[in-house]
Amino acid sequence: MGRRRRTAPVAPLPQRDGVDPVRIRLPADPEGAWPTVRDHLVERFGTAVGVAKVEAMLRDGRFVSAEGPVAADEPYTAGRLLWFHRDFAAEERVPFEVGIVHRDERVVIADKPHFLATTPRGRHITETALARLRRDLGLSALQPAHRIDRMTAGLVLFVVRPEDRGAYQTLFRDRRVRKEYEAVAPYDPGVALPVAVRSRIEKVRGVLAAREVPGMPNSESRIELLEHRGGLGRYRLVPSTGRTHQLRVHMNRLGLPILNDPLYPEVRDVQDAEPEGGADYSRPLQLLARSLEFIDPVTGRACGFESRRSLAAW
After folding, report:
1. pLDDT tens for residues 256-313?
2. With contact defined as beta carbons under 8 Å apart, do 91 and 127 qualify?
3. pTM for the full model?
4. Do 162 and 177 contact (CB within 8 A), yes or no?
5. End-to-end Cα, the chain, rounded Å
6. 172 neighbors 146 (Cβ within 8 angstroms)
7. To 10 degrees, the CA torsion angle through 142, 146, 151, 152?
8. How many helices (H) and strands (E) does the chain have?
9. Are strands 68-69 and 64-65 parallel, antiparallel or unpaired?
10. How many angstroms separate the Cα of 8 from the Cα of each of 11, 21, 269?
11. Of 149, 126, 186, 182, which Cα lies nearest the Cα of 308?
12. CA dist 202 to 148, 238, 249, 274, Å?
C-alpha cells in the first residue's frame, strides 16, 4: 500500500501581489517562556522589525490562524500554525516582460528576461517571474519546478496544479531534463573545445560568488564553441548537473568569463550589479537558458521548448 501524501494546510489569507503569506509553526516551549502568542512573536520578530511593529500587527489582526485573527493575549500553543503578510519594500520594476513559450492545463513554460528573479527571495519579492505570472495569468497556485539565476534569461518551467509539482520537480532532480544554454564570452583559440568541465563547486550562504574547491566533483558542463567574431565567441553550454552559478564558474575556469558577469572573475559590486541608483539594464549577463527537453511525466509525450530571446552582444 502506497504512502499517503500529505497536503499542505490551506492559508487563510489570500496572496498579495502574487506573493503567498508567510506561514510559521509555533515551536515547542517546554520551559514556558512564552505565556501568550505575543510573547513569542515579539521575541521572534521584535529584533528585526521592532516590538512596536509586532504589537501593531497583532492589533490590526495581521497574524491569522485557521480560526481567524490572533489576539495578543491568547495563550501560547506549541505546534499552532499562523500566517501573515510581510510589508514589502518598494521595488523598482524590471522593465522587461516575461514571455510565454507554452501554456496548457499542467505547465507554463516562461521565457524570463534578464534581471528578473525566478521566485521571491531577499530584496526581490514582487518583482519576480513567479509573482508576475500569478498576477498576469490569474494562476494563484502556480509554482516553479526549478529556477535559473536572476541575471540569466530564458526558459523556466512552472507547474499549474499543486498535485503535479512533485512529478515535474523530480524530472529536474533526477537529471531527466536536457537543458541547453547559450553564452557570449571572449574567444581564445588556445582553449581546446568542446570540453567537459568537472569540478566541486560550493556556495556559502551570504557570499555572492560560488567557488571551486578540492574534492569529488559535484558539477559537470559540456562547453562548445558555435562561432566567433571580433574577439568574442558564441558558446553552447550543456550542464549535466545544476549547481549554483555552475556555468558561470566553469566558463571562468576556462579563462572565458561570460560577458557582463558581475561576479566572475571578480565581484564588481556587492549588490550583485545593482548600484545605489538601481540596476544597470544596459549590461545584461550574456547567458541564456536556450532550450528544455524532457518526457512529460503526466502524459508520457516527448517535449521540447526553445527560448525566443537572443543575446544582445551577438
Report:
1. 999 999 999 998 854 444 544 457 899 999 999 999 999 999 999 999 999 999 999 8
2. yes
3. 0.86
4. no
5. 56
6. yes
7. -110
8. 5, 15
9. antiparallel
10. 9, 13, 39
11. 182
12. 17, 20, 11, 24
Which part of the chain has CATH 3.30.2350.10? 99-306
**Residues 179-188: tens digit of each pLDDT:** 999 999 999 9
274: Cβ–Cβ under 8 A, 6 or more apart, which residues?
Answer: 280
**Alpha-carbon torsion (55, 59, 61, 66), positive or negative:** positive
- 302 bridge partner residues: 295
Query: Residue type for 255, please?
Result: G
Here the cell at position 313 is 552582444
> Minimal CA–CA distance to 123: which of 83, 90, 85, 156?
90
Q: Rounded to an integer, what is the distance from CA 118 to the centroid of its chain?
A: 4
% of the chain surpassing 90 pLDDT: 85
Residue bearing cell 492559508: 11
Phi, psi of 213 (to 5 degrees): -130, 160
Q: From CA 21, how far away is CA 16, in angstroms rounded? A: 8
Q: What is the DSSP letter of 47?
A: H
Q: Which CATH code fits 22-84?
A: 3.10.290
Instruction: Name the segment(s) of the chain with CATH classification 3.10.290.
Output: 22-84
Protein fold of 99-306:
Pseudouridine synthase (3.30.2350)
H or E stretch including 246? helix 246-253
